Amino acid sequence: MTLKIGVVGFGQRAGLWRHAHREGAEIAIVCDTSERGRRDATAALPEAIVTDDLGRLLESGIDAVLVTTPDHEHRSVAVPALEAGIAVFCEKPMATTLGDCDAILRAGYENKTRLYLGHNMRHMPVITQLRDLITEGRIGEVKAVWCRHFVSHGGDYYFKDWHADRRYSTGLLLQKGAHDLDVIHWLAGGYSTAVSAMGSLSVYGDITDRRDRSGERMGEWFSLDNWPPTSLTGLNPVVDVEDISMMQMRLDNGVLASYEQCHFTPDYWRNYTVIGTEGRVENFGDGPGDQIGLWNRRHMGSAEPDESMIIGGGSGGHGGADPIMIAEFLRFVADGGPTRTSPIAARQAVAAALLATESIRGDNSCLPVPELDPDLVAYYEDNQA
């Protein structure tokens, strides 16, 4: 059977439709409220219906929908789609509030409709290779996870459009960090129960050159020549999210974790260090051809890894993760069964990010992460674990 797919929000991440098309799915209808989005969709998918009416999409007979709208609009699309019995792929982060996350989860639960979250890093080779080493017991029992995220493209990626406005993104610990927080939880085998954080708007808040780019796409202003960060022009009219953040986490299994994110570094990659009772692993670079080091013997001072592994990869975005993720989603739509991504894990990543952001904007105190309804946890873990 050929799956009929809809797309809501034809912006930066809507390109995932290409992977669905290559897997044999039919992109039947696209919904976007912007003229630019509809124009781009018509050019890319001349045989698809293009509309600004969500109701028309929901009544079109599609099997599944890719929700690739801005984050604060996820609930307004995902909930009615789930209520209509349409399987949902929801781009990460799941939503920008816990209320919206839990409403999406409850809609899937109450209507027994399949829900998949787009945490593609669970398919990235650097992450899957790290996790394999951990689950194979190569470093013993995990006790600590540290992640440093260097974001050289932060000025272009997040400070020239709606991401820079906390009314829409909440903050970059959520919008950008949800990826890494989900990975930290996955590598550690637990979820955050308490978080604290510090952060500031250290660089981009001082740039006064601002303009509205609502009719543009990031690829139209991105350039490696936009350096140093203080030289950037054309930032979003509102810039009130942190460009550097540091958070700490205590997980429900006793693991301690930390996450640091900076949007004005010269290089762009993530560094994970996972420390266990019998060793540690760490990646140097996070793309195909880069390296993972493993230390499992005692050394005097700094030492080369006891074992090194080359990070694999493929084509199609994020080290080949995007096409693998979409293939898994389509299989899930058609047949159900286990998925590597998890709606519960996606919610818990949002929860950690939201509470850390609250800590930053408060007195930096340690805040508890609200628990999720056990019935929802049991439902999604039984159906997708």
From TrEMBL:
A Pfam family this chain is assigned to: GFO_IDH_MocA_C3
GO MF entries: nucleotide binding
Residue span, GFO/IDH/MocA-like oxidoreductase domain: 128-282
Domain Gfo/Idh/MocA-like oxidoreductase N-terminal: 4-119
Domain of life assignment: Bacteria
Name the UniProt record assigns to this protein: Putative dehydrogenase
Native organism: Microlunatus parietis
